[in-house]
Amino acid sequence: MSTQALQHSSSQQLASFVRLNEGIKGVVLIAFQINIMALNAILLSHRAGEVALGFGVISKELRTLSVELTGLMQELSSDAYQAVNLISDLLRRERRQHLLQATRQQLPQPLPALDAILAERLQVFQARGQQVREVRLRLLDRLEEARKLCQFGTAISRSAKIEAAYGREYGRALAEVSQDFDQKIQTILPSIETLCAGMQRI
């Protein structure tokens, strides 16, 4: 692969990781909203008393889920930041390598010292490339974990709808909260899917 092609490939990867970081921020915001909603739902279930015990348990589960998802997103953000730094370094090294190779081609005869520098820099470049691949795989694993967490959240939010039906005079309020839970979870899943697809294309 030519240096120009490598630069283009690295630039595309850099853009993908930057987009990933933006997507992560969106998921964190929704997870925060779920956390606040869950706290309110826990308070509501306390007011409702015995008829909303099951709803209270589910609300606590959703709050735990939101905290876990936020932690997972923070880890993803840290990995994405590391990848951006690695790829930025790769781009700088690619440009230097291109200049050295252009200089070498203009020389009337081979220069062993320059060849040694080129070979050494190529090794460092390949090592950086391997680090980027490792970060990408780690990101994919964490995104898959986030997807499973959201699928679990979907099941919990549907259980909340069932429990809301037993809320008697609080039934309507509990049903509204459970509907909000479901909508928020359903918003996160496509975001996670989009992030996964973006990482798989790199």
TrEMBL record:
<keyword id="KW-0807">Transducer</keyword>
<protein>
    <recommendedName>
        <fullName>Methyl-accepting transducer domain-containing protein</fullName>
    </recommendedName>
</protein>
<dbReference type="InterPro" id="IPR004090">
    <property type="entry name" value="Chemotax_Me-accpt_rcpt"/>
</dbReference>
<dbReference type="InterPro" id="IPR004089">
    <property type="entry name" value="MCPsignal_dom"/>
</dbReference>
<feature type="domain" description="Methyl-accepting transducer">
    <location>
        <begin position="30"/>
        <end position="78"/>
    </location>
</feature>
